[in-house]
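Minutes, project check-in
Item: structure for the 285-residue chain
Input as provided by the requester:
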Amino acid sequence: MKSKPFLVIGSIIVAIILLTAACSAGFAAGSAFGATASSAAFQSIPFLGEAITTESEIQTQAVTPEELDELFESSTIKPTFDYVHIILALYIFEKHPEGIGRYRLKENLLIGSGTARSLINKLSEVAHFIEVSENNKRRGHLLTDKGLKFLKKLKKKIPLLEEGNIKALEEITIQDKKLNSYICLIKDCAKRLHSGIEQRDAAIKVNGSGATCLIYDGKDLKYPNSPNLQNNEVKIGQNLQKYFKLKATEHNTELEEDDVVIVGLGNTSERARLATLNSALTLIE
C-alpha cells in the first residue's frame, strides 16, 4: 500500500512529460507551417523596381536586336529583310502618323516589293507593331500602341536620326557633291566602340559610302582610338561641336559622356540613312 503514492506520482509525472512533448511537437509543427507560409507569402510580394515596372523604367530598358528574332522565323523561306529595315521602318511609320503604304515603305527602305510585303506582315501579324488605318485603309499602316511603346524605348538609345548638312560636315566627311549624309546619336555606348572600322563596314554592307564615329568625353567630340593616329585625343572643330549639340537639343536631348555620334554617307538620302542606322546598331547590346 505504501507503494501506491509513488505509483500515482510517477504516473502523473509521465503524463506531464507526454503532454509537454505533445504540446512542443504541436508548437514546432505550427511554427514550421507559419514560417513556410510567411516565407511563401513574402516571396510572392514583388520588390519595388522588380515585379513592378514603371513607365520610365520600361523606356530606359535596353533594346536589343534579339527582341525581334521572332520576325525572322519562317517554316518556308527566311525573310530577306534585316534588323536595320525593321527598326528604320518604325521610325518611318512614326513620321507618317496618318499611315504609309507598302510602295512608299519599300522606297524608303530600299527593298523590293516582296520583301516589303513580308516585313509589313511580320510587323502586323507577329510583332503587332502596326495596323491598318481604320479611317482610310488605302493610306496603309500606322503604329499601334505596342509599336509606339517599343519605338519610345528604342529612341531612348537612339534619340537622333536625321539628314545632315553635308557642307557643315565637310571637316569629317568625304568632299563629294554626289554624296548625302545622315547623323545619328547613340547614348552611352562609347565602351563598345573601338576604332570605328566595324561601323564603317556596317555602312558599306548596305551599300553606303562609309561612316565616321565620334565620342563625346563630357566636353568635346573626339575621334575614337586608332592605331593610325599618333595622338588619340584628336577632337573636331568648335563649329562642328556646336552643330552636333544643336541637333541634339532640337531632338529634346543633349550630348552626355560616353555618347557616340555617327555620320553616315550614301549616294542618296535614303542610302545614307540606312547606312548610318546600320552602323549605329553595331553599338547596341
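Outcome recorded: The first strand starts at residue 130 and ends at 132.
No further action items on this chain.
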